[in-house]
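Researcher: Please predict.
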Amino acid sequence: MSDEVLTEFSDGIAILTINRPAARNAVNRAVAVAMAAALDELDGRDDLAVGVITGAGGTFCSGMDLKAFLTGERPTVEGRGFAGLTMAPPSKPLVAAVEGYALAGGCEIALACDLVVAAENARFGIPEVTLGLVAAAGGLLRLHRRIPYQVAMEYALTGAMMEAPRAYELGLVNRITPPGAALEGALTLARAVAKNAPLAVRATKNVIVSSADWSSDEAWERQGELIGHVFTSADAMEGARAFAEKRAPNWQGK
């Protein structure tokens, strides 16, 4: 794996670290390609249930590498979008562990994750309008779905930064930790996900993400198409059996 994205796999969790601390983990083409490869590995390995994305050196991600942008480089992967992630997140859950700044594309990476844990002094923002750009990597598509419309519009139009306690208050952040403890907080949350049945976890995420544009007339049918295999799986039988026998289940992912 590329040095730009460090990977660590253990106990069903993939830890993916953007590793450009001297550039505040700004995303260049190399980061995007490496992140896409790491996420493919997350989705492709049966022993992995959830991913955690963080940044090296006390900063989550400052966004697109503007110096590389000026040379014509684009930090995207075809079909996957910015950072190899924002257009097509993996089917397995992702947790963002945010220290320092999650700005511009960095905020959009966090928005592409399913859960967010942030240090209490972390800051979020999509300041693209202050740079003559647009938050096109999901910021404008996702932010107003996570926080109230008017609040999202204010941050998008002014480019102002949002402090972690405010993000928590608005529901953008799941948990707040002391500075330096965001990764451990994210791992605690990831472990709570990883202990559950893999098929059920993936189907649950799929329904929540996919149903955003379902009509009420089609919702139940489309949900059934995504979850039917879970109820006939070996894991469903194991879950019921383990409950009856008062023991921990032994998931097989099938």
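Model: The chain has a mean pLDDT of 96.
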